[in-house]
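input
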Amino acid sequence: MSEISALLLHMHCNVVSAELWTHNMRVACLLHITDLTGGPICDSEKLSRIKESLCNVLGGDKDPRGARTDFASGITHSERRMHQLMFADRDYERGCDEEDDRPDSDGRITVENCDEKGYSVVNIECKNRHKLVFDTVCTLTDMQYVVFHATIDTEGPRAYQEYYIRHIDGCTLNSQAERRKLIKCLCAAIERRVTEGLRLELCTNDRVGLLTDVTRIFREHGLSVTRADVSTRNNKAIDVFYVSDSSRNPVDVKLIEAVRKKIGQTVLKATQEPVYSMPPHLEASQESRSKFSLGSLFGKPSQVLYNLGLIKSYS
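output
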């Protein structure tokens, strides 16, 4: 991320917002950039130079898959696009192997056919977390599967998802290879948002080159960014970074304090991962598990999911 932001600054670009995910030794990054005046970059030759330079920086000498960079002028949902980028890059290929269908240490994914109803049934058990259903449905949709019915069930820290699906052509998953690929892709979708490293939050007045300076200091102190969410609101830079050392090990507290001293102790803070809790009046009782059907939840389609193309209406 340090090299990307430095290159863009060198080419007179300003990063307004950015999102970066890492998974299975692959990285995907979505950036919103402007010229130094805050306007859009319309020069096609400049865009071509930026694209070529980024590919050279990202590809390196040891990446057999190479690197891909592209531009889009339309509005897209950033997290949906991140899933698509990772899926296109085949980050799932190092996911669940033949002997391990688990997205976490005690979870499991199975795919079976229900011949009586003409559906394939996907069952997922894993740790519950924020946006878990979104990540799952994004992947099913991007793989050209249609969800006809689904049930989501939570109990304590565990989540249980069941989806009745068919391929967009109406067929079920009839081959073992197709089922294996779906399991691998769902594993990857669940794991991508699992954060590694220490959470650092930055809040300060925005300026051109800020991201370059911050990530350069991270790099000079041996920190690696495993995930980032960079945004600008009302001329304020509000950024979240997850960092580890170059071997993905936890970082030393003294090292973090040195980084904070360099950037500004009031600007950069180390925080705990936020806990997403349900409002008290919505919490299920001990005897009642919080179970619901997507059919009833989206009886009147959610505008967000509808706009994303993740849900459709079937009579």
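quick obs: The radius of gyration is 21 Å.
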